[in-house]
Design brief:
459 residues, alpha+beta, 19% strand, elongated
């Protein structure tokens, strides 16, 4: 486990004399922190989005040929889909919380809900089923897909006992019901998702700057915890611990086996030095939404400017940008994740690019419902999840890396990137939520200041 460590930053006097000029991650973009609305307004937004999503359920049931959908859970043992349907002021299920949704109700009501801890819920449920007479009733009991397998084993036993023998033979498994419901992002969410993405970019640009990084003193873990504190100070939260990797580090796992290092929370820590290529995997959470971004930066030597960045590193970023284009162009809705992976890898190799592709749905959850396009350890195909079709009206993280030989370092370095895209009904294509990194972030130190750096203080 990582031990506690002081967060480092420069003294105010030092910060005042450091160069404030910087290169942004994308031409023409200067990301700014976006302030969240008051909690009450957030609740109103969330509930509006949820109600809009609920109206989709009857159509989804008809699309997948199911007459009814039954979800049931106990407090702290919620079905995964519960979190996509709950009210903003609900923090868990209560007692036994049961929902029944109908594809073509006889009386006009598409749903029924109970919060009860007595047998009365089963009596009422059997009465409604008797009136509606659904031929098929979906349960979320899939063994491999988390979003379609959220009914706990004990609750399944309770449902089977509660409804009785009459309805048992009508229970079916249709995983795409839950997957598509959770995956679908109503259009009203996009303005706030874009603001959140801009905020994530702004935090990364601040973290990967001379205002935070003091070469030779600030370590990768210092920057990770600075980013975590920065998120908290803005009333956002996150769904994973930020990571900072030194891609050019001697003996650093990310330089030798990036795929392994990315999944290793115990990666070693050391001070960031001049000439380092550094990388972050970073996300923020708010309003029931989650972002996922990976950017890279370069630590200039004292007195250096943009023109001194090793050309091989600039070419490495361009190469991974090309790989992003390849994957995005191959993301055809209706195709499976494995089909998209195969087509992307074949095109990547034809163009002489070496790397890995491991893209996933995002938004409602950091790793959300939908097909998976590769995994770091599964580059031929991903069983089950990779066989799902790519859906419209959702968000995706295009996550990957390209390898590039950097002659100035006489070594091959991995260039990771991750940017979120959304489905645009107007252009009928995937578009970047905020943009993508096309220029390295630069950490600068004026030559005259390199001799006078003082010991950083705690935040």
């Amino acid at each position: 486990m990582r031990g506690p460590r002081s967060l480092l930053t420069s003294l105010a006097g030092i910060a005042a004399v450091l160069s404030v000029a910087k290169a942004g991650t994308a031409p023409g973009k200067t990301p700014q922190i976006q302030k969240l609305p008051p909690l009450r307004e957030q609740a109103e937004l969330l509930d509006g989005w949820t109600e809009e999503r609920k109206t989709l359920i009857p159509g989804l049931l008809r699309k997948y040929g199911v007459d009814a959908w039954l979800m049931s859970q106990r407090e702290y043992a919620e079905d995964t889909v519960f979190w996509a349907l709950k009210e903003s002021t609900q923090f868990s299920a209560r007692r036994r919380t049961t929902h029944l949704f109908l594809a073509a109700p006889l009386n006009g009501s598409i749903s029924f809900s109970w919060i009860d801890n007595t047998p009365a819920v089963w009596v009422e449920l059997r009465r409604i089923l008797g009136t509606q007479q659904p031929c098929t009733i979906a349960l979320n009991t899939h063994s491999e897909i988390a979003f379609a397998g959220g009914m706990h084993a004990g609750e399944l036993d309770a449902v089977l006992a509660g409804v009785g023998d009459e309805w048992r033979d009508r229970f079916v498994l249709e995983p795409m019901l839950a997957v598509e419901l959770v995956a679908t992002m109503v259009m009203a969410r996009m303005p706030w998702y874009r603001r959140m993405m801009e905020t994530a970019w702004a935090i990364i640009e601040e973290a990967f700057s001379e205002r935070v990084i003091v070469p030779g003193k600030s370590t990768s873990w210092d920057i990770e915890w600075w980013m975590r504190e920065r998120i908290q100070s803005l009333n956002y939260t996150t769904w994973f611990q930020p990571s900072v990797f030194i891609l050019t580090g001697d003996g650093f796992p990310a330089a030798d086996d990036f795929a392994v290092a990315m999944d290793d929370p115990r990666a070693p820590d050391r001070p960031i030095q001049y000439g380092d290529l550094i990388h972050t995997d970073f996300g923020i959470s708010a309003l029931g939404l989650n972002t996922d971004t990976q950017h890279i930066g370069y630590v200039l030597y004292p007195g250096e400017t943009e023109v001194d960045v090793p050309k091989g590193m600039i070419e490495g970023l361009r190469k991974v940008n090309r790989l992003q284009d390849i994957v995005k162009d191959n993301m055809k809705t209706g195709a499976t994740g494995n089909e998209i992976l195969k087509a992307s890898l074949e095109q990547m190799r034809r163009e002489g690019i070496e790397g890995k592709i491991y893209c996933h749905a995002t938004g409602e959850w950091g790793h959300s419902a939908g097909t998976v396009i590769g995994m770091t350890n599964l580059q031929d195909k991903v069983p089950v999840l990779g066989d799902l079709p790519l859906l419209k009206n959702t968000y995706y993280s295009i996550e990957l890396f390209a390898e590039h030989f950097v002659p100035e370092r006489n070594k091959t370095i991995v260039f990771p990137q991750e940017e979120d895209v959304y489905w645009d009904e107007v252009t009928n294509s995937w578009e970047w939520v905020y943009g993508r990194q096309e220029e390295l972030l630069l950490i600068r130190t004026p030559l005259e200041d390199a001799q006078h750096m003082q010991v950083p203080v705690e935040l």
